[in-house]
Design a protein that fits this description.
4-stranded antiparallel beta sheet, Aspartate Aminotransferase, domain 1, binds pyridoxal-5'-phosphate, alpha/beta
């Protein structure tokens, strides 16, 4: 029996404390529910965990068990075999590591397919690490059709030299979800499919097996979990011979000349792990699953639809991601910079994101300096959208807010 997505604001101390706060910026990071905060605080208050030999704590707690259970929960949530899932330090950090590994094995003339709506974290590692290695990699750019990968165009990019495609599961600007299986079927099994899942986790169903992806990376902080912790699915991880990082934890012995690595995925984990983070993120996964991920996606998409109808009915509004399923409303107010709208809204305790959103290639369908991203999650309601609508409606040219000496909201101080 799934929990109904209703009165969810009560799950968050931040929202209970700030009754007027409307948080429309979940694509940046999600709020953290009390149950997650309680779990992680409990660990720091009462356990203090780390994996080390002869620890009083390991004997008195189920640290290792809880850690494994949590990792297992994450694996199950994305339908990954346990052997193929690794804890990481977030999407960006691991993208850099994996790109280094992949490019190391490529040759001059090999091709990589990227897209211009991708987040900087899924473009800059590729371009810069290729440059650093001095490899003459050819970058090709897929086009979009109705804000998704244009499969017909994608097909025309593929040659015998195409080795990799890296793509967002869900775009952080438009919030539109790609069909990963269709992409994989278009590029075929000989091309490695890397998925930036930063916006996928906690928002949409992830099934790495059904979608036949090779890498799926995400962070915990956008899915009710801790910052700077992430997870990666790597298909057949055991086939990777050399790890990407070196140090304590992944070796069984070494001398001046050589090192012997541990077996299995242990080979890929070095340094002190975020044990409290991994364990408490298990609570976040349980939280997501208490509603059902498909219900979450549906709920958020309905909020977007509702907001699009209301905001889109106003004069001077251009909905950028019109008529598409998404949990984000991405729009412009004609003649006004997005930042001015954002400032005006923040004065009224509504938090949105404006500007580039870490996507800096020009896009013919919108202007970055004008764009406003309203990103929804389960703690948002139609009532909040109604308030947002009233404010946009009465915002005038929004410039007035810039000259107010004492903004009402403490957020702006
Ligand atoms: C699509 C996308 N990729 C990557 C990132 C970076 O993720 P992380 O914060 O886990 O490094 C973000 C975060 O905004 C994102 O939206």
């Amino acid at each position: 029996m799934k929990r109904e997505i209703k009165n969810i604001r009560d799950d968050y101390k931040l929202l209970r404390k700030n009754k007027k706060l409307i948080f429309f910026n979940s694509s940046a990071t999600s709020l953290k529910p009390d149950i997650f905060i309680k779990k992680i605080s409990d660990i720091y208050f009462n356990w203090e965990t780390s994996f080390s030999k002869s620890s009083w704590l390991d004997e008195n707690n189920n640290t290792i068990e809880e850690y494994k259970n949590s990792l297992n929960k994450v694996a199950k949530h994305i339908n990954a075999p346990f052997k193929d899932i690794l804890p990481t330090y977030g999407t960006t950090d691991f993208m850099n590591k994996i790109v280094r590994k992949i490019i190391h094995n490529l040759n001059d003339g090999d091709e990589i397919i990227l897209g211009k709506l991708e987040h900087a974290s899924n473009i800059l590692p590729w371009l810069n690490i290729a440059k650093e290695f001095g490899k003459k990699i050819i970058f090709k750019w897929y086009k979009l059709n109705n804000w998704k990968v244009d499969l017909i165009h994608l097909n025309t990019l593929i040659t015998k030299n195409t080795k990799v495609m890296s793509v967002a599961h869900v775009y952080n600007t438009t919030g539109v979800k790609n069909n990963l299986l269709e992409i994989k079927n278009t590029i075929g099994n000989n091309i490695t499919l890397v998925v930036d899942g930063a916006q996928g986790i906690g928002h949409v169903k992830i099934d790495v097996i059904k979608d036949n992806v090779d890498y799926y990376l995400f962070g915990a902080h956008k899915a009710f979990g801790p910052h700077a912790l992430g997870f990666a699915y790597i298909k057949n991880l055991e086939n990777i011979k050399e790890p990407w990082t070196f140090g304590g934890g992944n070796n069984s012995t070494y001398n001046e000349y050589s090192v012997e690595y541990k077996e299995g995925k242990q080979k890929f984990i070095v340094g002190t792990r975020d044990v409290p983070g991994v364990i408490s993120f298990g609570t976040s996964i349980t939280y997501i699953e208490s509603f059902g991920i498909k219900n979450i996606e549906k709920y958020n998409n309905n909020l977007k639809k509702y907001a699009e109808k209301k905001i889109g009915s106003l004069k001077n509004i251009n909905i950028i991601n019109k008529n598409v399923d998404s949990s984000n409303l991405f729009f412009e107010v004609n003649g006004v910079a997005g930042e001015d709208v954002g400032y005006y809204l923040a004065q009224n305790e509504i938090i949105v994101r404006t500007g580039t959103n870490c996507v800096k290639f020009k896009n013919e369908n919108y202007k970055q300096y004008k764009s406003i991203r309203v990103s929804f999650h389960i703690y948002n309601t139609k009532k909040e959208i109604d308030k947002f609508y009233e404010l946009i409606k009465s915002g005038g040219d929004f410039l007035e807010s810039l000259f107010k000496k004492n903004p009402k909201s403490k957020i702006c101080k």
